[in-house]
Amino acid sequence: MTVLMRATGLSRDYRLPRERLFAPRPLRRALRSVDLEVVENETLAIIGESGSGKSTLARLLLALDRPTAGTVEFRGRPVVAGSSRSLHWLRRETGIVFQDPYASLDPRMSVGRIVAEPLQALRIDGDHRARVAEVLGQVGLDAAAGDRYPHEFSGGQRQRIALARAIVHRPALLIGDEPLSALDVTVRAQILELLRTLRAELELTIVLVSHDIGLVHHAADRIVVMKDGEIVEHGPGDAVLDSPQHPYTKALLASVPTLGRKRL
Amino acid sequence: MTLQVEDLSIGFGDRTVVDGVSFEVADGQRVGIIGESGSGKSLTALAVLGLLPEDARLSGSIRFNDRELIGLADWRMANVRGRQIGIVFQEPRTALNPIRTIGRQLVEPLLIHRLIERRQAKATAIELAAAVRLPDPERIVRLYPHQVSGGQRQRVGIAIALACGPGLLIADEPTTALDVTIQAEIIALFDRLIRERGSSLVFITHDLAVLSQVSSDVIVMASGRIVERGTVRGLLDAPQHPVTAGLVQASVATSWEGRP
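YS: structure for the whole thing
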């Protein structure tokens, strides 16, 4: 069991806009001293509701934001937000998929260019065209898709394109920030299946940030539950879902609408 | 019979987007309409409210309490909308007016339909806020939508929709934008208010699990047509149409069955 990523005492405070003219700007503690380990080849889900700090945590793991306190390490090497040059090594090891595939793809770039962009930005050697065609195939699109533009694709196909871009440079870690939330139910099932296939084929470590218990239940090995910037519970997926310990986790799970089918 | 939709078709240019849809909602009945994006479920709802864009082609019949709504003059339709048929939209952030206080928006339908006097407005707003269990009603009516949470905004949306005591409430994905604990609270609120007032409900969603909490009767739409109707239980156990089977399969594959 190798630890791929480790966060220690991670905190992030935000100054909110002034509410009155001479009042000090209020402080929002988005993350309060969080410790987290991501183990190689696991799928770890970070669940919680709006404002729980889960997206802030994901941003700090990828050095997209600077912590107020605490440290992040990737394979033992410190992750420090800074210039793109100093983070080059981290970008090669990581990929991210965002929630809304309508917002995350540049409408003026062809799909081929979008997917090849990480290869160019990270100056990865090799035949980029061949690699793009290969990765489009892995996410279930045909190579001809590379010549088309995002608006020609449905939401589910766009999320496949976003996934192709996230894995084109063969990262070790894939982070998904609500990757299924904007999709229709049948498309969600397809993308979930794709995530599982990719994980097995590419031996990816995956961190899923989500409020979707259904997705987490079907995808995660381990679950971390967040509330008000703190981790309130963590453990193996089945254990957390079947016998939650913290009152907040219990309340969260009790609110999830189910189909009312008996478990097999 | 509250609502009778017969052979409703909606088109834009040479495209037909809703094609020969017929269904009925009886007094006090709750009907769910389920389908994916583009299935025509929201357009059907907008047609009932007379809110389709000007360039839409509309044919068929929509009868509400035995009155034909298609072709009704705008000012007559305005008398039906809000007063006899209420609507709750998906995104309470965009459905509410950002520069008017919550209190003013709560009583707006009552003032427009002249059901209360202006001097009663403040007291009525506080009553409405209390009815949907908004915290500290006297304070919240003075706030603006951005100053309250998403769940509270949706409570405001529901209070507005129910302010005039409509016989029919249409809810278009009312909980999709909300966190799951808030979603559970809002569904419970819907359930209570509709039962208390005896209104009929048309609940539009793409989520079978959410629908099963609200209504047992369900219509499945795909590509502008009704492909199947029945009960949620029946659809889950034995879907007839391939589209329904796909929806059920996908729902099972992405949902959680609850604690054992």
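YS: worth flagging: Chain A has a mean pLDDT of 91.
IM: good catch. Also Residues 79 and 90 of chain A are 8 Å apart (CA to CA).
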